[in-house]
Amino acid sequence: MRCLCLLLCVLALFSSCKESEKDKIARLVEEWEGKEILFPARSVFTIQGKDTVNFSFVDADYKVVTYIDSVGCTSCKLQLPRWKLFMQEVDSTLNRPIPFVFYFHPKDMKELRYITRRDAFIYPVCFDEMDDFNRLNHFPGEMTFQTFLLDKDNKVVAIGNPVHNPKLKELYLKILTGGKAEKVEIPMTEVSMDVASIDFGSFPQLEKQERKFTLTNTGQHVLVIYDVVTSCGCTKVNYSKEGIRPGEKAVQTVIYEAEKAEHFSKTVTIYCNADNSPLRLKITGNAE
């Protein structure tokens, strides 16, 4: 069962990767399959870095564990609004509580507290300043592989971040429900995107930027966009929630609101019922 789950996870994540990359990911998944995740002897969980809470997950049949390192854009990695939505979906689907165990290794405690307050994230979090959790387990460097579904013995059942990939979310729900999660089969189609990248150029930091790109359904079935994930909270996409008929086009809008003056390079990932899904759009620019 574990092997099958992990194999499905890999195929869902990397079906469009080169063969060499597939081999690399397969070796990584094989390494973590069934591996026991170790937890620090004493971990302090708080709400937004202020109120300490008694948070126990020892007796749970399953638990979702995620580790966020201090490399790169913290807000981009956290995606707390998406975690809240996924947690709500799990709660509404199951008839038993599933603990979500968050270990954040902050490069800036003040920033991390601000983000949890900004996103109204009131779930217990361990701010692991000494990085004890990672020292015990030596997690992969790729953000995608720093989230795990564990069984009651803390062994890895599935690996991958469900808030970044709807296929992984589907996999997690399927395991948690014992295969009872409802799944609607949608026929695959083909899609093309008119641009692979968008350059916003230079603009004043406080000025909201918008650019458009077009998706064309070049296949034989209705194109459905499952989800659009951005690599940063300052990037949003207004996309079509309705199906796109064969031969038709749909214009999508990318919105960028800079949090600070900087040169940026971000990624928009589009998940849909197309053979070449996910589609990736690179956006760059310079907020002055």
From TrEMBL:
Pfam families xrefs: DUF1573 (PF07610)
UniProt-listed InterPro entries: DUF1573, Ig-like_fold
PANTHER family, sorted: LIPOPROTEIN-RELATED, SIGNAL PEPTIDE PROTEIN
The protein's name in its UniProt record: DUF1573 domain-containing protein
Biological source species: Phocaeicola dorei
